[in-house]
Design goal:
Blueprint lengths: L2 H4 L8 H10 L3 H23 L5 H36 L8 H16 L1 H4 L4 H8 L6 H30 L8
């Protein structure tokens, strides 16, 4: 065999990645990332079970309750809100798509609210104060400030895009 026969065309992945993609259904890097996520989740669960969070039954109830709350209440809520936002956007599309300038900061803000809800809503003040020696009174103003900064930065980017689009005379359509 000559060396020209051993070379693969430029831009083609090595044969082992194509075989792995056929067997797994995605790039091998995806499988590696999923396995790392499972390892992190297993370590977090192990720490929860061996910490002072209660019995394994309490942890299981918390996990199942969280999944049911998310899938039963939160997913329909934010899917419905996004559908409403899309309906409004379709009525008033404009030349520059403004819909993602609302979606992105709202999504980041809601994820932060979900992650830090206990501190933002001051639900575990005694345990938090005892464990850290600090008050959790700053979480709500910090979350509100960060939400305002996210929406403000998004609004500035939108205004910049509108000004650029009007000044350039471009005939690009609105994109979502």
């Amino acid at each position: 065999m000559t060396t020209s026969q051993n070379r693969r065309p430029p831009g083609r992945p090595p044969p082992w990645t194509e075989q792995a993609r056929r067997r797994y259904g995605a790039h091998p890097g995806h499988l590696l990332l999923v396995l790392v996520c499972f390892a992190i989740a297993a370590e977090a669960l192990n720490r929860m079970l061996h910490a002072d969070y209660g019995t394994p039954g309490a942890v299981a109830r918390w996990l199942i309750g969280g999944a049911a709350l998310h899938d039963g209440l939160l997913v329909p809520l934010y899917v419905g809100l996004d559908a409403l936002l899309v309906a409004v956007w379709r009525r008033h599309p404009g030349r520059v798509a403004w819909i993602n300038h609302v979606r992105v900061p709202a999504g980041i803000s809601l994820v932060l609210l979900l992650v830090y809800a206990g501190e933002i809503l001051r639900r575990n003040t005694v345990q938090f104060d005892y464990s850290t020696g600090r008050s959790d009174a700053v979480y709500l103003p910090h979350w509100l400030f960060l939400t305002a900064v996210l929406f403000g930065a998004s609004a500035l980017i939108l205004v910049g895009r509108v000004v650029r689009d009007r000044g350039g005379g471009s005939d690009r359509g609105a994109r979502c």
